[in-house]
Amino acid sequence: MEFTLTPRGPYGFGLVLAYLRSSPSRVVEHITARGFCRALAIGPGVVVKVERENLSASTDPLHITLWAKYLTPSLVNQVRQHLRRMLTLDVDGILFEDHMLRHDPQLGRYSAHYRGFRPILLGSPWEAFLWAVLEQDIGAKGAETIKSLVRVGGEHLIVHDQIYNLPPTPTWFLQKQTATLLSTGMTHTKAMARMGNTLIMASNSG
Questions:
Q1: I need a labelling partner for 144 at 20 to 30 A (CA). Which of 21, 137, 165, 202 fits?
Q2: What are residue 35's phi and psi, to 5 degrees?
Q3: 87 with 27: CB under 8 angstroms?
Q4: Which of 34, 15, 162 is nearest to 87 (CA)?
Q5: For the purposes of burial, counting CB atoms within 10 Å of the CB of 47, is it exposed (0-12), middle (13-18) or buried (19 or more)?
Q6: Strand (E) or helix (H) holding 77
Q7: Closest Cα to residue 4, out of 90, 58, 64, 52?
Q8: What φ, ψ does residue 120 adopt, rounded to 5°?
Q9: Do 107 and 132 belong to one domain?
C-alpha cells in the first residue's frame, strides 16, 4: 500500500538521511539516495519505505510504501501514527530557527545551515534501550556487537529479495544461554545479567 505523510513546517529530509547514514541503527535500515527502508516491530512482516524527491527543507509530503503480512486498515493507521512520531513530522522548528537567526548570529549560522533538521526517533522504546546499552562498548566493538546480535537473534523479513532485520526481542535475551550472548561480543557483565531488570521494564513499556 502507498500513502503520503505531510510534515508540519519545513522538513529537511536530506539532513535526516545524513543523520541516519552515521547512526548505529543503520544496521536495521537500508539508506538510498532519496530515502530509507526498514522493518518495524508493530505487526507481522511490516516493512516501510520512506522517500521524497525534494531533500531540502520544505513541506513536501513524504511518500510511504508499506508491506505487511496482513494489511488491514487498523495496521495502516498504526503505521501512519508510528511514522509521524518516529520522524517527528508534527514538530515545527521554524519559530526556534527564526529566533536564532534574529538574536544569536553565531548559532543563527548553524540554524540556517541545518534548517529543517529534526532528530528522528528509533523504531521502538525497546530498540532505543538496546542500542543505548550496547553502545556503552564505545567504538568499533560496540558496532560489531550490534550487528552480531541482529544477525544471530533478530527477525529477518524479505521483501522483493531484500532482507530487512529487526533487533532481538527481550524474550530472546531472557531465554538465551550466557555463552550465546558472549558469542556476539556482549560483555560478560551484560550477558550474565541479561541487562538486568531494566530489560524487562523496557519490554513492558514497548
A1: 202
A2: 170, -155
A3: no
A4: 15
A5: buried
A6: helix 73-86
A7: 64
A8: -95, 160
A9: no
